[in-house]
Fold each of these.
Amino acid sequence: MPGRIQGSKNTKPSKADIRRYMDGLRAEAEAGSVAARVALIELSVKLLAAKYDKQP
């Protein structure tokens, strides 16, 4: 399973960093990893919640 999302030292991860991390999780989930599948779902929910919390 991929480790942490790798971003720059003092900044939050970019969209490309998150996309690469999710691609790694997706590949492991397709290979049968239940933990990767759960992590992918949790990350997707977290990203969607952050997206809709920003809207007025």
Note: DSSP finds two helices and no strands in the chain.
Amino acid sequence: MMDKQLKRLFCFTVILFAALAAMLTWYQFFRAKELWAHPFNPRRASLGKSVLRGGFYDRTGEPLTVYTKDGTGIGRNYLLNSLAHVIGYADPRYGTAGLESAFDSELSGSITAIELENVIAAVTGRSKAGADITLTIDRRIQEVAAATLAGRRGAVIVMDPLNGDILAMVSNPGFDPNNINKDWFWIAKDER
């Protein structure tokens, strides 16, 4: 009787471990890209501490983001809070959102042309670098649209009727992507 129960327990344990191994294999080989690309994957954004992420520029070449380098690694500084909904954020704890998420491969230097440069950078001791992204946004028009909407709820979109370029996008209420750690509770709580 005891041998029969031990055999059942042994079989159950083997089946359980086989199922666990099958599930881990499935995730490792078939869903790895999907899990890596998920915006809430903090590992993607944490790579930004060792990689000089590409910057965002407006249509005239004015910077919309700049990088900072200190003892803890490489950080990101967003110059216009009114573009927070568009550009989003890249944070080691909260992952990526907005254009930071959509263009993560290019910004982090994980597309093939940049990968070779990053291998050379690793060998020579330079910082790895991602590609820059130029938007159709015009910084001056963006600032005027943000000032027009200041203190009110709503959204403003300014488009060029000749070619459909988006020159400005503002949404209120907004958030400061430079203080994502401090403001995360309020951002996550807001159901809008």
Note: The mean pLDDT is 81.
Amino acid sequence: MWDKDPDVDDILHHPDPPGYFDFTIFSWRGWVNTFALFVIIAAILTLFIGYPVLFDQTHKPAKFNGFNAGGINGSGQVPSLPNLPLLIDRDTPSNVMTRTGSDGFLYDLVFSDEFNIDGRSFYPGDDPFWEAVDLYYWPTDDAEWYDPGAVTTQDGKMVITMTEQQVHNLNFQSGMVTTWNKFCFTTGYVEVSISLPGQANTAGLWPGAWSLGNLGRAGYGATTDGTWPYTYAACDLGTLANQTLNGNPAAESTGGIGGAPLSFQLGQKLSACTCPGEDHPGPSVTVGRGVPEIDIIEARIDTNRMQGLVSQSYQCAPYDLFYDWNQQSPATTVFSDNISFINTYQGGPFQEAVSVETYIEDQFYGGNAYAPYAYEYWSDPNNRDDGYITWYSNGEQTWTMTSATIGPNSQSQVSQRLISEEPMYLILNLAMAESFQAPDFKHLVFPAQMFIDYVRVYQRRGIKDGVGCNPPNRPTTDYINNHMALYTDPNITTWAMANLTYPKNSLLESCT
């Protein structure tokens, strides 16, 4: 039976006899415990309060910001993180960090890729700056399908390989890689060291190194519909479909090749005539926007001389009558007329081609030797007369166009076309198309490979907002985000296919 009284032998219930009390202030163990608690509390307070205060008082901020011979990190205040991607490749030689431009200004390197790490992948998301596309490039009726697997790096080079194989109902596979919406630049000097594919005596391959305005993504037709290759700031006939209004000027109807119409353009979609509140990338609807194209090179073979040629071009719109841009000096200068000459192709209903071709040496093919090809350009929205582009082949100037090369044209009634003011991105590709040059299949050898040793971009020292795809005076980010489906689906080939209409043009309809 249970009761509340403890058993006589259960001493744990009453460890002390009745009336027993043994506290004393002179207890040694109590003082040791108290002292230990004090030490622990003091240590915690010192660590989290005392040390920060002491450090702040004894380490005053430096009176410099780390700008030194080493640049922004000259003081070493930022750690070197080996896997962090940088705009300037760590393998870029120190002696090419600056250059003097043809304009006499000092230029600083702002981007480089030396491709010294083998086995890089350029599938979407794999590289911070480059991305290879997976699509058919229908605008030029190409023979190949572009696949990301055709682009890699090997032996310190980017390699784009064209193979003869069945893919997506085509007989060839190749590669196109771009920096679209990842790396862009506004004005500068761009140099690419290339060994061209194939041989100088075999026609048909179409290697290219070029640049486009960021509002148009190469191969994504809806994004270039009404934007490529417009570079125009006026609000006049040049913004309209076919460059005409009510049938005027009449010369436009026969001002193209062989008496054909001058232009099949549907009009400048993002013109300076855009009505307020309409869909426009800004900075305001009164700023004409577009997608100009500057080609570093497009290479072909002169089959009469069996020698390689590179065309170095500016594609623009709207057009001069008969695509007859100003070829006279001082507007245009061809530096070595023994190897360089005005391109016989000057345009068609979808583009005006301001272009010069230059012969190159046979050694710069097949990975045997490399030549640097480049252009340097300048534009200033506040002083457009100063604009120019100068091209280079194998380190030598080939030709220069100025703003006067594409100045106002009274015959086609268009105003000044602009040296690009858009943020430009880079494109490297290896194509094949009858529209460019008929392939000599009897002698072409596959696989064919295009080798790129390096890509380097420079800008005038002191330029503001020169690097980036969303500069404040020519933004692109919001517009791209608002039309992301068109920039990510190459099967949407026109603006109308997305059930979209061009913004209202004040020359054609009321803005109210």
Note: The longest strand covers residues 448-460.
